[in-house]
Amino acid sequence: EHAKAELRPPTKPSTGQNQNQNHLEQQRLSHEQFRAALQMVVSPGDPRDNLENFIKIGEGSTGIVCIASEKSTGRQVAVKKMDLHKQQRRELLFNEVVIMRDYHHPNIVEMFDSFLVGDELWVVMEFLEGGALTDIVTHSRMDEEQIATVCKQCLKALAFLHSQGVIHRDIKSDSILLANDGRVKLSDFGFCAQVSNDLPNRKSLVGTPYWMAPEVISRLPYGPEVKI
């Protein structure tokens, strides 16, 4: 005698399962919204149509940096590839792209273009062969003249940003890049903020530990002076 199959109604998900599903849906929605918003500030198309010979030269918690060559000119460029899923503060990507797109100065790293490639933001910028100041100070001792040269060029970049109502908020040796001809340029604009007559100060605790001004750590009002 065959056992009768027992028909049961589908099991309802538990409250915990519902919460997890809702959380995943919110995450997916916010990611899609963020990606759509980012799409509005980057260029359309695929940068690989004009770039080749990618070589990875660095890696961080949020992405990698490669050098590549432009097919049309042969010019070597740096490409910063940032995974949207790995960004703890995704709004910083907007800062990075918008600041580099809108503000140009001889002592600020030049961004050539930016794109969305899948779920990665690609920022194509000039390649500075000398690398970051961190590499220099880690392996050698700079004399006073060299220190003065680096400081002067950094201050020129900061003076320009401050004249535009922009404060950097993340000056560190990793953010200072050098070219082989002695040029010094600021990079890493994710933590930048706008100040104005109506909003002359900020209180946000942002930046890199060990490089923060006391006012920032203490959450006191601060302005452009914290980077000097």
Automatic annotation (TrEMBL):
EC primary class: transferase
Keyword field contains Transferase: yes
Keywords of this entry: ATP-binding, Kinase, Nucleotide-binding, Transferase
Molecular function terms, GO-annotated: ATP binding; protein serine/threonine kinase activity
Origin: domain of life: Eukaryota
Chain ranges of the Protein kinase domain: 51-228
InterPro entries the record matches: Kinase-like_dom_sf, PAK3-like, Prot_kinase_dom, Protein_kinase_ATP_BS
UniProt: ATP binding residues: 81
Biased composition (Polar residues): 13-24
TM annotation in the entry: none
EC number, as in UniProt: 2.7.11.1
UniProt-annotated stretches for the region Disordered: 1-26
PANTHER family (UniProt xref): PROTEIN KINASE DOMAIN-CONTAINING PROTEIN, SERINE/THREONINE-PROTEIN KINASE SAMKA-RELATED-RELATED
Protein name, UniProt field: non-specific serine/threonine protein kinase
Organism: Araneus ventricosus (Orbweaver spider)
